[in-house]
């Protein structure tokens, strides 16, 4: 087997060049280590557990974000921002938002007690991801009392990401409106300034913001979930790959999956079933990303220290 691999490596170097050959071998080793680690930590079961927790947490989580976000922004703006991250149509989301508004009305509006109850109900949303990423690093299992704190930290990260997702598009839109409103003044004093190109760049920035928000969330998840010190340099590449993979999956879900699978058999909860399937696929991709962080760190810095779980 070894001579065969050596001959294969020499053939790759001869036809593609040594640098490309080294890159292919690096990618192959990293991919194999990622898949092996994903299988070792039962990544598929953890992704299914993530979808299970979402089933019970999605309504209180959306209600919590809507309740707290409405204190700073308009309710419509908050809802539209959340909808942008859900890979299902507005019609399929109708069931979810009807139940969220019903839950809000049952809570009697905004109060400290209602926020606390919604917060506790939505904390388990991140439990499977936090435990999965932590186990990928082979660190000691997180104690039971630290898990809610980690989940709360993830919830705060999501909240800050949505805050950025609400604030920056509004600022960019305001800048665009100011430039358009002051078109005559800008062209008079700065005739070389391309107003159309600037407006297009601002619009493009608003669309790219969704990817940056996801990258921010995954970077912090991969850095903070493990029970060990993890640096940004160890996670940024995996966070970029996971962000691009999820955005590609989202495009496929929105444009192709509804035509291939008939979720109408679930009746009124068809949209929820489609969302749970999306969450399951997302969980697989995110946990694979955590395994990729470990595999890349092993390639760059040597073997990761293994600490058995207690």
TrEMBL record:
<dbReference type="Pfam" id="PF03631">
    <property type="entry name" value="Virul_fac_BrkB"/>
</dbReference>
<keyword id="KW-1003">Cell membrane</keyword>
<dbReference type="GO" id="GO:0005886">
    <property type="term" value="C:plasma membrane"/>
</dbReference>
<feature type="transmembrane region" description="Helical">
    <location>
        <begin position="236"/>
        <end position="257"/>
    </location>
</feature>
<feature type="transmembrane region" description="Helical">
    <location>
        <begin position="109"/>
        <end position="130"/>
    </location>
</feature>
<keyword id="KW-1133">Transmembrane helix</keyword>
<feature type="transmembrane region" description="Helical">
    <location>
        <begin position="263"/>
        <end position="296"/>
    </location>
</feature>
<protein>
    <submittedName>
        <fullName>YihY family inner membrane protein</fullName>
    </submittedName>
</protein>
<feature type="transmembrane region" description="Helical">
    <location>
        <begin position="204"/>
        <end position="224"/>
    </location>
</feature>
<keyword id="KW-0472">Membrane</keyword>
<keyword id="KW-0812">Transmembrane</keyword>
<feature type="transmembrane region" description="Helical">
    <location>
        <begin position="50"/>
        <end position="73"/>
    </location>
</feature>
<dbReference type="InterPro" id="IPR017039">
    <property type="entry name" value="Virul_fac_BrkB"/>
</dbReference>
<feature type="transmembrane region" description="Helical">
    <location>
        <begin position="151"/>
        <end position="172"/>
    </location>
</feature>
């Amino acid at each position: 087997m070894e001579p065969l691999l050596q001959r294969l490596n020499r053939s790759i170097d001869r036809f593609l060049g040594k640098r490309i050959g080294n890159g292919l071998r690096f990618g192959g080793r990293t991919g194999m280590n990622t898949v092996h680690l994903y299988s070792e930590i039962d990544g598929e079961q953890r992704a299914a557990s993530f979808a299970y927790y979402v089933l019970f947490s999605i309504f209180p989580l959306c209600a919590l974000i809507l309740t707290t976000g409405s204190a700073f922004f308009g309710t419509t703006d908050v809802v539209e921002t959340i909808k942008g991250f859900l890979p299902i149509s507005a019609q399929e989301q109708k069931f979810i938002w009807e139940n969220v508004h019903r839950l809000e009305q049952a809570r009697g509006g905004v109060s400290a007690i209602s926020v606390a109850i919604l917060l506790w109900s939505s904390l388990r949303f991140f439990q499977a991801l936090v435990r999965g990423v932590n186990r990928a690093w082979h660190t000691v299992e997180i104690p039971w009392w630290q898990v809610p704190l980690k989940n709360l930290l993830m919830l705060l990260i999501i909240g800050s990401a949505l805050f950025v997702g609400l604030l920056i598009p509004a600022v960019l839109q305001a800048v665009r409106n100011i430039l358009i409103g002051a078109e005559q003044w800008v062209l008079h004093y700065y005739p070389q300034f391309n107003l159309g190109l600037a407006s297009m760049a601002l619009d493009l920035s608003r669309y790219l913001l969704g990817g940056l928000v996801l990258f921010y969330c995954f970077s912090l998840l991969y850095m903070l979930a493990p029970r060990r010190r993890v640096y940004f340099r160890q996670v940024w590449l995996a966070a970029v790959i996971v962000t691009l993979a999820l955005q590609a999956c989202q495009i496929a879900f929105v444009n192709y999956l509804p035509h291939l699978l008939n979720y109408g058999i679930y009746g009124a909860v068809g949209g929820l079933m489609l969302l749970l399937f999306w969450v399951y696929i997302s969980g697989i991709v995110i946990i694979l990303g955590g395994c990729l962080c470990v595999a890349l760190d092993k390639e760059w810095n040597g073997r990761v220290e293994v600490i058995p779980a207690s």
